[in-house]
Amino acid sequence: MRKGRFKKWNFVPIFTLLALALAGCGDPRVSALVPQGSNARESLYLIKLSAYIMFGVMAVVILLLAVVLIRFRAKKDDASIPKQVEGSNLLEFIWTSIPVLIITVLAVVTLNLTFSMAQDHSDDPNALKLEVIAHQYWWEFRYPDLGIVTAQDLYIPAGKKISVELYSADVIHSFWVPALTGKMDTNPGYIKDGIRQNVNRFSFDAETTGVFLGKCAELCGPSHPLMEFKVIALSEDEFNRWAERMKEPPAKAASAQVQAGEQVFQQNCMSCHAVDATDTANRPGPNLANIGNRLTIAGVLPAGTDEERAESLKKWIEEPNRTKPQNDVPGTVVMPPFKDRLNAEQMDDLLRYLMEQKIDVTPPKTAKGN
Ligand SMILES: [Cu+2]
Questions:
Q1: Which among 40, 93, 211, 340 would be 20 to 30 A from 118, CA to CA?
Q2: pLDDT confidence of residue 369
Q3: How far is the CA of 228 from the centre of ligand 1 (A)?
Q4: Of the options 3.40.630.30, 3.40.50.300, 1.10.10.10, 2.60.40.420, the CATH number for the domain spanning 128-356
Q5: Per-residue confidence at 86, pLDDT binned at 50, 70, 90?
């Protein structure tokens, strides 16, 4: 290195960039460092424990190194050979037993937490049962005890264990909500003797109400990074109200325009989508009940205001492939573009109809801790 290089402080921009990049790590909607579920809290405990042990080891090693460097520095004109300590039983004992001790402590704590997270709550009458079915590139959520199904926005009651069964409709995906829980794979399965094989089970919870960002954590195709979902944790009363409202049949069309939109929907979309949350038949597309309340459209397009929602719906319906590139594997069902199939009036009516598909339970705007 050239002399005087540090004087120019040219490493500062790099550190600034790093600091900026890491500054995104504390967002409470998505950060494992701001845990808001018991799984995430226990994982963070493990992360901290191993980090502190590592810092301790580093401190001791650096200290010893410094002592050795200073104390045993070769003196000028001293060419004598220092005392040789090869084969010291004491030293070998020390540097074997300390790592063994550290690894034992980590192993005991890790195993303990792993088993506690993997505890099966499927027979727990207080736990809410949930089925997560991953599709290229969207998430289906079924509540077998409530008889309802939804997609993309996962509503749960805060403070309650959610007992989850996961599988995939196509390739392997992975369910991950960093602020609430670690990853769990969804495997493609098959039915044998009436029982689905290859199902993964686990449980998680949210300790506070709020909205948390979920991701697919297994590379699953061209739109893998766009396979996002939200977990909306409501108070238990609000959740029950949500579930009751979801069980009601969709509202009758209130105006001629909405009625016309309903017709457009029935003619073009019903083969793949239902708008009734109690319609639990297997359909190729997400259930669109409450689509007028989704936090995003198709998991990624903004829907913060009514204008944004209408714009996103239009963009999606016209050319879904522009938002989420699909595979061209024969046999996969993808949503076709409707750009040239619907005229402007039909599109308007359809949008009006879709926007009306909502119930009066508003998701909390941001997570606590913001
Ligand atoms: Cu995926």
A1: 211
A2: 39
A3: 9
A4: 2.60.40.420
A5: confident
